[in-house]
Design brief:
The complex is a heterodimer of chains A (121) and B (435).
Chain A (H helix, E strand, L loop, with lengths): L1 E10 L10 H20 L3 E6 L7 E6 L2 E6 L7 E11 L2 H15 L3 E5 L7
Antiparallel strand pairs in A: 1-5, 1-6, 2-5, 3-4
Helix pairs in contact in A: 1-2
Chain B lengths: L2 H5 L1 H25 L2 H22 L5 H19 L1 H9 L2 H4 L18 H9 L6 H12 L4 H8 L3 H17 L12 H18 L7 H17 L4 H14 L2 H4 E2 L2 E2 L12 H17 L4 H14 L8 H14 L3 H14 L2 H11 L7 H13 L3 H14 L3 H22 L16
Classes of the chains: A alpha+beta (121), B mainly alpha (435).
């Protein structure tokens, strides 16, 4: 069993596909709930999170032994990670099938990245 | 066969067998080890042992089985000796048990679904890999081409190709791209990329006697695909296309130079292959779900039907190219369509069609070769020479270069002939008759 990160990408200023009316929001939440129930029932679900906009991000780095904080995301980009799932899956095909279900539920592109497995772990 | 090839025959005997069994051995060892790099190293090591022993004792009756058994035993011994191996051994106890597992005796095909090579090709052609990586992996792992050969077939440097293969194998391992034939629901889509990769392998073996085994390898893979997916007409179409193309191979070259369809000795065509290919095309027509490979096969079937170049049903060929272009509008199909138009409407119409696509295919030698032939037929010898020279410059295979050099010589001969002929100033006839 491997773990995969399914990152949800959002494009700055793009609202296409996002729920707007209360009815749409309710449908959206129902889809998410049903997806996560399915993930949990099958032992797929590990963790999920939704992130604030990159405007809320702070970068911390070391410079000559001092910690330096800067405002804003590390990468200035129109695309950013809006949320993620961490899932268990047998192989890439299984992970891609789950990614497909997430895409259907939230209507955003998903990037599937395998977690590094520690030898002997 | 050229003298050069004949002189090397003795030394290439064992190497030729290596090439033929490489893909089979790799596919089985990837299943056994679940790791491509491990399987590659093991096959390499077995080839080193074989190269010495086979030269002394002769090639065994079942070379692929011999390589698999030797590679497996050596790899397991290596694994046991190394610390990493002991770690793996503890992690995957199964590896050790395979040492006593099926040996060379039960080597053989277990039916298409169980075909290891089929599994490996679906892994190599996984849509999570980019196309250039799919083709490179398939050629390297199943076709047994060296990294340098794969690099040359892609027109990139050996180091670029080596990096590409390392990256592709890294992704298969890190992301766990599975080693299996896809589920029913995913098959049609997954099949499409597999079919184009198989056809590319076939074409890599065209006009290169040293790589002829790639063509039979591609045909073998296509047969396995047809057996596995009898309801997929495009797999059948690809098989027919390759059989019909293969049927003409022995007539395609003479003294290492390319012989055009119009000049081929049609008695040299392999009629068994033609009959098999045409039967598949007829079955496809009855099924009536045309696709790019079936249409290309139908075009080849029309060519193979004709007793002579002149007797070819050119209007039918142009109609099939029109249909093909409507489902797959690529510049190369437009090029072939333009050449066919030269036979129905004459070289003037062909030149107009060629000029329309010339910018898209400026780096493709066959476009310049076709322009050269067309310009020659129109009597524009200087322009024809320029086009042929550009084609020679871009040509990849020696056979192509020899053929093109011959065309340039023919042009010069025509020129000399015209200077001594009273009607020379009007140039050769341009009534659309093939040269």
């Amino acid at each position: 069993m491997s773990q995969y990160l399914l990152s949800t990408y959002a494009v700055e200023g793009e609202v296409r596909g996002s729920p707007e009316t209360p009815e749409e929001m309710q449908k959206f939440m129902e889809r998410i709930t049903s997806l996560e129930t399915e993930m949990k029932a099958s032992g797929t679900f590990v963790f999920t999170g939704r992130l604030h906009d990159p405007d809320a991000a702070t970068v911390v780095r070391s410079s000559d032994g001092d910690l330096v904080m800067t405002d804003g995301p590390f990468v200035e980009s129109k695309e950013h990670i809006a949320g993620f799932y961490i899932i268990n899956a047998d192989d890439l095909d299984a992970a891609l099938a789950w990614a497909g279900k997430v895409v259907d539920a939230i209507n955003h592109p998903i990037e599937v990245t395998p977690f590094f497995e520690m030898p002997g772990a | 066969m050229t003298r050069v090839v004949a002189a090397h025959r003795e030394t290439t005997g064992v190497e030729r067998v290596f090439r033929e069994v490489y893909g089979q051995a790799m596919a089985t060892l990837v299943r056994v080890f679940g790791d491509i790099t491990l399987a590659e190293d093991a096959v390499q090591e077995a080839f080193v042992v074989a190269s010495d022993r086979w030269r002394r004792e002769g090639i065994p009756a079942n070379p692929a089985g011999w390589i698999v058994t030797t590679a497996r035993n050596r790899a397991i011994d290596d694994l046991r000796r190394s610390a990493r191996g002991r770690e793996l051994h503890e992690q995957f106890g199964a590896v050790a048990s395979t040492h006593q597992g099926p040996g060379a005796d039960d080597w053989g095909e277990d039916g298409p679904v169980r075909d290891d090579q089929l599994r490996l090709i679906f892994t190599c052609c996984h849509p999570a890999l980019r196309t250039e990586h799919q083709v490179a992996l398939t050629l390297r792992l199943l076709g047994g081409l060296s990294v340098d050969e794969v690099a040359r077939s892609f027109l990139v440097s050996e180091s670029t190709m080596a990096k590409r293969l390392v990256r592709a194998k890294y992704k298969i391992k890190a992301a766990k791209i599975p080693y299996r034939v896809p589920a029913e629901a995913d098959l049609p889509e997954r099949l499409r990329s597999v079919l184009s990769v198989v056809y590319l392998i076939y074409n890599t073996g065209v006009d290169d006697p040293e790589r002829a085994s790639l063509r039979s390898e591609a045909i073998r893979l296509a047969r396995a695909l047809v057996e596995l997916m009898p309801d997929e007409p495009e797999a059948a179409g690809l098989l027919a296309l390759m059989l019909l193309s293969e049927s003409r191979v022995s007539a395609r070259t003479a003294e290492s130079a390319l012989v055009l369809l119009r000049d081929q000795d049609r008695t040299k065509w392999d009629h068994t292959m033609i009959e098999e290919g045409q039967a598949i095309v007829r079955a496809c027509i009855r099924r009536d779900q045309p696709g790019p490979f079936q249409l290309q096969a139908a075009i080849q079937a029309v060519h193979c039907d004709a007793d002579s170049f002149k007797a070819t049903d050119w209007p039918q060929i142009v109609a099939l190219y029109d249909h093909l272009f409507s489902v797959m509008p690529t510049p190369v199909i437009a090029l072939n369509r333009a050449i066919a138009i030269g036979e129905t409407e004459g070289p003037g119409a062909a030149l107009t069609a060629l000029d329309a696509i010339a910018p898209d295919l400026d780096n493709y030698h066959l476009m310049h070769a076709a322009r050269g032939t067309t310009l020659h037929r129109l009597g524009q010898r200087d322009a024809a020479k320029t086009a042929y020279e550009r084609a020679v410059h871009l040509a990849v295979t020696e056979a192509d270069r020899r053929f093109l050099a011959q065309q340039i010589e023919d042009l010069a001969e025509d020129e000399a002939l015209m200077q001594h002929s009273p009607s020379g100033s009007t140039g050769p006839s341009n009534d659309g008759k093939p040269r």
